[in-house]
Amino acid sequence: MNIRKMEGFKKEEIRKGPWKAEEDEVLMKHVKKYGPRDWSSIRSKGLLQRTGKSCRLRWVNKLRPNLKHGCKFSAEEERVVIDLQAEFGNKWARIATYLPGRTDNDVKNFWSSRQKRLARILQTSGTPSSSNPKPQKNKNEVPVFQDVPTLEAPVFSSSMEEESSYFDNPEQIRMMPLPSLVKTELPDGGYANLSQYEPLSTIPFPQIPQLQPDLLFSPESHELLARLDDPYFLSVLGTADTPELGGAAQFSLGPPLFDPVSGCVNSAADVANHVTPDTLFDEFPSDMFDLIEPLPSPSDW
DNA sequence: AACATTCCCAACCGCCCTACT
DNA sequence: GAGTAGGGCGGTTGGGAATGT
C-alpha cells in the first residue's frame, strides 16, 4: 500500500489546532463507548477529522478524568518532579505516574519553565555559564544522578493501559486508584485519603530516593552553591525574579500548600501567611533541595 | 496606555517500540 | 523475518495571558 499517497490524498481532511467543544464531545463519546483506544478509528469512522495521535493526546492531556486543570504545581509536586527528574532524567511520562492528575505534558512544561527561569537567573548574575548562547535548552539533558537505586514504579500510569478497563465500567472510575501524596478529590465530590482505597494497599508507593548531596550535586549545583556566598548573587536572587525572597529570613516550608478540597495548590491569598517555597525552589537546580530538607520517607506520606 | 518581556500551556512533530499481518 | 500501523513519548513551537517597564 502506498501510504504516502494515501496520506497526501487525505491530507486536506485532517484538522489541526485548538480543539472545539464539539470535538471534545465526540471524543468523549467515543472513549465512553470503546474506551481510550482505537484512536485512529475515530477518523476512519468519520467522527472527527483528527489524527489518532491528536485524539489520544487530547484525551490524555485534557479530557481524562481526575486531571488537575489550571492548578499550579504544589510545592510537594515540585519537589517530586525535581527529585524524580534527577532520578529518571527527562522521562516525563514516568515521572507523571507519580503525580496524580498530572500529565507528562504538565511535567514537561513545568520543568521547561523552571529551567528557563534558572538559566535566566544564572545569566543575570553574570556567571561563566551565562556565556552559553543557549542556556534555556538543555537538550538531551543527561540525568545528573546515575547511581541512585532504581525505584519501583507505581503500577498506575498516565498512559492508557490502566484506563482501558475502567471505562468499561464507569463505576470503576470512582474507585480508580490514584497515586497521591495527599488527599485526592473524587469525582463524586468526596475526598479520598488514598490509603483507604483497597487497590492502593497493593500498590507499592513510589519511593523517592534519599539522595546523597555529596554524591549527587551536578556541576550546575556546585556552581550555584559556591555562589551563594556571593552577596551579589544572593541579591540577584532576591530581587530579579523573586522579590518575596526578601523575607527569606522568615522562610519556612510550612505545611503543604496543597488544598485537599480543590486538589490544587492554594491561592496566593491562602498562602500569604507563610512564604511559599515554590518560588524559591524554582531558582535552584534540582539537587539543591537535598541540602535544604531530606524528603520524608514514603511511610510518612 | 503602549510596548516588551516572561510565563504558561496546548498542540504538533518526529522518533521509537510493539503488535499484527 | 519484513513491512506496516498504531500508539507512546520526548522535544519543540506558537499563541495568549500576565507582568514589568
TrEMBL record:
Top-level taxonomic group: Eukaryota
Domain Myb-like: 11-63, 72-115
Lineage: Eukaryota, Viridiplantae, Streptophyta, Embryophyta, Tracheophyta
CDD domains noted in UniProt: SANT
Pfam families: Myb_DNA-binding
Protein name: Uncharacterized protein
UniProt-annotated location(s): Nucleus
Region (Disordered) residue spans: 122-143
Entries under PROSITE patterns matching the protein: HTH_MYB, MYB_LIKE
Primary localization: nucleus
Domain HTH myb-type, residue spans: 11-67, 68-119
Compositional bias (Polar residues): 122-135
The keyword Nucleus is annotated on this UniProt entry: yes
Record's keyword terms, sorted: Nucleus
